[in-house]
Write a structure and sequence with these properties.
The complex is a heterotrimer. By secondary structure, chain A is an alpha+beta fold. Chain A has 2 domains: about 140 residues, PurM-like, N-terminal domain (60s Ribosomal Protein L30, Chain: A), CATH 3.30.1330; about 160 residues, PurM-like C-terminal domain (Phosphoribosyl-aminoimidazole Synthetase, Chain A, domain 2). Helices cover about 30% and strands about 25% of the residues of chain A. The model of chain A has no long low-confidence stretch (mean pLDDT about 95). Chain B is an alpha/beta fold. Chain B folds into 3 domains: about 120 residues, HypD, alpha/beta domain 1 (Rossmann fold), CATH 3.40.50.11750; about 150 residues, Rossmann fold (3-Layer(aba) Sandwich), CATH 3.40.50; about 40 residues, no CATH class. In chain B, about 40% of the residues lie in helices and about 15% in strands. In chain B, strand 3, helix 5 and strand 4 form a beta-alpha-beta unit. The longest helix of chain B has 18 residues. The two termini of chain B are about 25 Å apart. The mean pLDDT of chain C is about 90. Chain C folds into 2 domains: about 55 residues, SH3 type barrels (Roll), CATH 2.30.30; about 35 residues. Helix content of chain C is about 40%, strand content about 35%. The chains are: A alpha+beta, B alpha/beta, C alpha+beta. At the B-C interface, helix 1, helix 2, helix 6, helix 7 and helix 9 of B face strand 1, strand 3, helix 1, strand 4 and strand 5 of C.
Amino acid sequence: MNQPMRRMKSDTVTLAHGGGGKAMRDLIEDVFVSVFEPDGMEDQARLTNGALASSGAQLAFTTDGFVVSPLEFPGGDIGKIAVCGTVNDLAVGGAEPLWLSAAFIIEEGVDVALLRRVVASMREAADEANVRIVTGDTKVVERGSADGIFITTSGVGVIPPDRNLSANRVQPGDVAIVNGVLGDHGAAILAARGDMALSVEIPSDCQPLNALMNATCETVDVRAARDATRGGLASALNEIAEAAGCGIEIEETALPLRTEVKGVCEILGLDPLYLANEGTLVLFVPEEEAERALDAMRSTAAGKEAVIIGRATTAHPKRVVMQTTFGGARIVDMLVGEQLPRIC
Amino acid sequence: MKYAEEFRDPKAAKGLLAQIAQVIDELGATKEKPVHIMEICGGHTHAIFRYGLDKLTPAGLEFIHGPGCPVCVLPMSRVDECVELAERPEVIFTTFGDAMRVPGTKKSLLQAKAEGADIRMVYSPLDALELARRNPDREVVFFGLGFETTTPSTALSIQQAASEELANFSVFCNHITVPPPIKALLDDPHMILDGFVGPGHVSMVIGVEPYRFIARDYGKPIVVAGFEPIDLLQSVLMVLEQMRDGRAEVENQYSRVVPDYGNPVSIAACDDVYEPRPTFEWRGLGEIDSSGLRIREKYVAFDAEAKFSIGYGKGAPRFVPEPEGCACGDVMTGRLKPVQCQQFGKGCTPEMPLGALMVSSEGACAAYYEYGGVDLEPAE
Amino acid sequence: MCLGIPGQIVEISSAEKKLAIADVSGVRREVNVACIAGDAPVEDLIGAWALIHVGFAMSLINEEEAAKTMEVLKMLGEAQEEIEAMRASQREMDRAS
């Protein structure tokens, strides 16, 4: 950039900062561009990538809106999940994520310091995931029209020619593996909200999963993968079962859970299978490749605690069934509405 | 998780299941002519399905799901009254999560919240008290829902509010008691009941004496049970053994939590704060004498019914008919199995519930639906 | 109605208001201990296990009774293992003959 960078002149975001004028340029340059692309940003990112040109490669493209309350929580903030969420969406399709866009809707009155922290988180997460945030947008809305900050990220990646991950490739006999403990994000948010006055140390599991996916896909034939975000592991498994047309059976004893998450669930009457995750996925591999898949996953930072939790089966097609710790069996259905704490 | 996980140990289950099978044999019970044991409490219904106990126990044992689900027996008119209270601009309406999805005639509390009513889920009435302290310019109403397990906590909270002279806290009291509907069911000539698994946490408050009439006057065994699967299996075995031996007694399987005499502090607080209503409406069971609690005159300042002129005794009692096709009453009293209701899985699903039994996580219908009571092959 | 979970009292937050901190698997929550306090000083409750329901410690867990119940179950479990071992060895013998 030729001129000295513009700087924010106030501590809070006001409607002027969304107005398209000088205040908005201050916000964009000082808060966003200086962190995401210090060399400058055009209105549109212009990108080349060799892999895209190679024959048989596919472009992967995804988008997601992120709303969370509170905006900052143990283990992350809305920025971190906005980056990891879209990175992971690309990764579970077998893609190498490359570039993200980030569109912000900011409620007037938001602290600029908070915004800077969120942006810093996004840069940190992007670096960890080896992606760049190359373009974006900002709007400011009236007080009450947004819950602080809403972020929408879109992401573009490349799926190498030899990769084909798709739920309908999952076959009976394939083994289901998760990369780590379940429900941390959902429990962390619940505790952070404070409504239930629970005091507990659970950080969100928010992390990028593309390195793990890459390592695994390079080693074995991954049939399909899903990140277990809203609706938890149960919803991810149900989606796969539905698309694959086969049944899925999981073992309750195999499910990795933090003791504290179990505690939260016991107190509030929640089922950890339905708690959201932001850094946990489930993937399916052929049975004979399960051990090698585990090794590959465990060699990455996000997969140290990878473990087999079940398998696809010919029984009960399109349904997910869990063998309980007790030796009985129960159906694990898709989540209906929102899981609410109960006293009964 | 101490005192909980040991009672989920499948190894202990094997011995119990084998014994249960043996006694079922000795009783000559079969799938066509089973023993009918009612688990009274909704929490037990939930546990039975969650751990697949109905599939693990022999076909000669049939669980009849009782009316011990305070959400399920909540009449629609009461939900309407909750919504009415919540929609007042000065009110912060606080409730347990369980009540949020129960449909009223027009809407549920969840829907009212979406439309702008200030409705907040709390884990404890203590949290509602705190909200009242922090919001002196608003009226905090706590929806007092539940059986005797929960009546003491509401009572103690009212006493606390009184000692602090909180002017903006009141309770919309919908507390009910267990023994009266059990008597109503036992008096019903159509009910076939051989024994009862009794509500463990209600009993930790009221003790075991209130169930004496079941054994003494009706000759049925009742075993007060804990909530872990081992507790339930052990209690079922104890009921079956009583039947085999020709006994009808009140036994306490949950002795690690339930003292036979209950909890004196809880009982005293309840006596101080509540008195029985002459009758109270139970969804599916109609009006039952002395089965509901109301707040005594001395605590009228904390009685939302008085403060807001709403509910029982205020104007003509509203009779709200069940939605068409809803068979909650029959299912709740064990006359129908959830799958026998015409609407089950069709017009009534957890996503679009017709009645309370599909909404409450302890409702038999929700449990059947959620845990797949019918589709599965029996586990080995 | 019934969602109660055993928790351990780890701290007293207000002896006067009979409030304490209970721990359930690392999750802490303030609970009212009026139901279990009795006449002894509230501090005596530290370390005790109680059944926690809607923010109240409703009943002290009777460790002796818990042990007794476990004993009965253990014996049942062992008896069952004995029976199964006997059956298994019987099957072996039948096969051999």
